[in-house]
Amino acid sequence: MSYQSSASSASVSISPIQQMVASCSGAIITSIFVTPLDVVKIRLQAQKTPFPKGKCFVYCNGLMDHICVCVNGNSRAWYKASNHFNGTVDAFIKIIRQEGIKSLWSGLPPTLVMAVPATVIYFTCYDQLCTALKARMTDHTQEAPLLAGGIARVGSATVISPLELIRTKLQSQKQSYRELTDCIRSAVEAEGWLSLWRGLGPTLLRDVPFSAMYWYNYERAKSFLCQHYNTSEPTIRISFLSGALSGSIAAIVTLPFDVVKTRRQVELGELQAKNLSCQGSTFKCMSRIVAEQGFSGLFVGFLPRLIKVAPACAIMISTYEFGKAFFQDNAPCHKA
Predict the structure, then answer these.
(1) Which pLDDT tens digit goes with each residue over 82-97?
(2) Strand, coil or helix: 126
(3) Rounded to the nearest 5 degrees, what angle is found at the Cα of 334, between the Cα atoms of 331 and 336?
(4) Of the candidates 204, 242, 221, 215, which has an alpha carbon nearest to the alpha carbon of residue 318?
(5) Which of 29, 138, 210, 327 has the highest count of CB atoms within 10 angstroms of its CB?
(6) Which of 170, 63, 68, 167 is nearest to 118 (CA)?
(7) Can you tell me the distance from the alpha carbon of 89 to that of 91, in angstroms, rounded to the nearest whole number?
(8) What are the distances in angstroms from CA 237 to CA 22, 162, 219, 221?
(9) Model-level pTM?
């Protein structure tokens, strides 16, 4: 299937509900393909350094990062290193043979409750904003994806941040919803409503620049490849390559912010799990990393991040564009 040369052109013909369905489908497909890579990575980490009770680690389903709290050490957890793995391929084989293929998607359902709505909000808002901005920025339409991407990410992150905080508390403390409500109410009374968005700063520090660069480069790369292949309607292959390229560029540029965000999120997660007050700031976290490891510490994990981000971006954007094209091709006006 082929589709129109601009994501926003499809958004003129389809409704926001159809955009939501397309982004939801893309989110689920992306998580199905990417999650096994992160599950294997976490199992290898647990083999090298077992997770003690109360320890936090980052779990990525290809859509967003989640802080998971180790609640029972290595006794019955899915991230237990039950066997010795000799590398990534060996881990895949042993997990499938001994635990079943479903184990490669361990921990996925609870995170999708947050990740899918966040992705739907993000992609739908981007398309709507990009269309509106292009209509107003007649002389600077190429910059519209830059602004739309950044604004859409701020919106989705702001909505999801309190829910992610609640999910972390539920997981770590196994509270009832009534107990959780009392806990949140007491936190708001003591520290104000902004306490529900603690941790949002590091997230925005990485995700807003990433999103702005990603969408700007994606639209430019897609246009370039259309000209290169002499086609006015980009194929899934063109969208896939554009997504992988733009995702790689954004991932490399924002790597220092990713390192800081991950460290800060883990610290906040462990403190919140113990109901302790969260002190410090993102800037202090960055200064501490530089003091301990030098400036090179801000670029740790370059290859793993690239391997994770590039395919996730490529799969998500190509399936999303495919879904929008499907609705556009089957619209009554299009058939007429």
Answers:
(1) 678 888 889 899 889 9
(2) helix
(3) 110
(4) 242
(5) 210
(6) 63
(7) 5
(8) 18, 37, 14, 12
(9) 0.84
Q: Which two tokens stand for residue 167?
A: 């999910």
Q: Which residues is 81 bridged to in the sheet?
A: none
213 closest CA partner among 100, 99, 293, 309? 309
Q: How far apart are CA 255 and CA 315, in angstroms?
A: 21
State the average pLDDT over residues 281-292: 83
Alpha helices, H only, the chain: 7-13, 16-48, 88-99, 108-136, 144-173, 177-191, 200-228, 236-253, 255-273, 282-293, 302-329, 332-335
Using the structure block, give the residue that is written with the tokens 């390559």: 241
Least confident among 18-27, 86-95, 164-173, 198-207: 164-173
Query: For residue 136, what are its two tokens?
Result: 């107003």
For 229-275, write each residue's pLDDT tens digit: 988 777 899 999 999 999 999 999 999 988 888 887 777 777 766 66
* Nearest Cα to Cα of residue 300 among 264, 267, 256, 262: 256
Taken in order 299, 300, 303, 306, the sign of the CA dihedral is negative
Cβ–Cβ < 8 Å for 58, 67: yes
